[in-house]
Amino acid sequence: xxxxRTVDWQGDxxxxxxxxxxxxxxxxxxxxxxxxxxxxxIDAISRLAVRGAPALGVAGGYGAVIALRSGLGDAGLERLAxxxxxxxxxxxxxxxxxxxxxxxxxxxxxxxxxxxxxxxxTCRAIGEHGAAxxxxxxxxxxxxxxxxLATGGMGTALAPMYVAHxxxxxFHVYSDETRPLLQGSRLTSFELAENGIDxxxxxxxxxxxxxQKGKVDLVITGADRIASNGDxxxxxxxxxxxxxxxxxxxxxxIAAPKSTFDASLEAGHMIPIEERNxxxxxxxxxxxxxxxxxxxxxxxxxxxxAGLISGWITEDGILKAEEIAAWLG
Length: 329
Ligand code: MRU
What we know:
Blueprint: E1 7-10, E2 17-21, E3 32-35, H1 38-46, H2 53-69, H3 73-81, H4 88-101, H5 105-131, E4 139-142, H6 159-166, E5 172-176, H7 183-194, E6 199-202, H8 207-212, E7 218-221, E8 225-227, E9 232-235, H9 238-247, E10 252-255, E11 261-262, H10 279-282, E12 283-284, E13 287-288, E14 301-304, E15 311-314, E16 317-319, H11 321-328
Parallel strand pairs: 4-5, 4-7, 5-6, 7-10, 8-11, 10-15
Antiparallel strand pairs: 1-2, 2-3, 8-9, 9-14, 12-13, 15-16
Bound molecules: 5-S-methyl-1-O-phosphono-5-thio-D-ribulose.
5-S-methyl-1-O-phosphono-5-thio-D-ribulose binds at residues 48, 51-54, 87, 144, 146, 150-151, 155-156, 183, 221-224, 234-235, 300.
């Protein structure tokens, strides 16, 4: 991958720092920021400077090191795990580091590094399995950003594209711009273009006509949390894309690691959905696009029912709905 790591740790547990790409500035500016205190870590997660379910897991693991070395204990870890509610990877990683570390920042760092390294391997495995779906000359549509900028590795939904590209296949990616925060146009098109993959940005409302014209052969998106029946929460708008794919008989796949599955939830309606500030819809950058007196509905995610999903691309292969429960154990 041609970009710096999305999330990284430099130094030892006592004085080291969490280093992240400041994603709110992309694609205009590629800037790394260093975080050494818990509140700036929570702030970076809340304002989407670091985002995407697996990247939130990796950042959460390193954030837990900072919480423990600062003596903030369980209350600090809880605030960190709560910084964003939908992506289960964040709480999963914080709780995993807490359990293993037993208060020791050195052990916490070793566990956080293990989560990071696992994510790199997992992304690669998702890519290897999913690449088989991508044939020469296909049009592949994705929504939001589930690439290197959303993980510790090469991504989830974008990983099959990177591996198919490595394997020499030529295909075209359509990236939904992904209102309201434009992760598709700002991040997905940026990282695909940086890595030499052909990409066209479309407004979310253009996916239907592209499908009608026969330009889309395959849809792959990521997920923030998947219930044990396969219902998948992902960036707002994903459900609409899945409905469109069904209407046009186009396969729709979710790519996600096991850490994104929540075996404790039977179905998607149980997944907590983050609602974000109305400011994100009332403004585009500095420009006002809706008055304060208008109410705003701004859920960050929606849930795609398992019945609309052709398969779940995981590190262990491409699963069918009926295989998920046994795989989760
Ligand atoms: O609000 P975001 O940008 O964190 O939303 C991210 C997504 O919805 C991604 O598709 C998902 O987390 C998978 S990332 C590999």
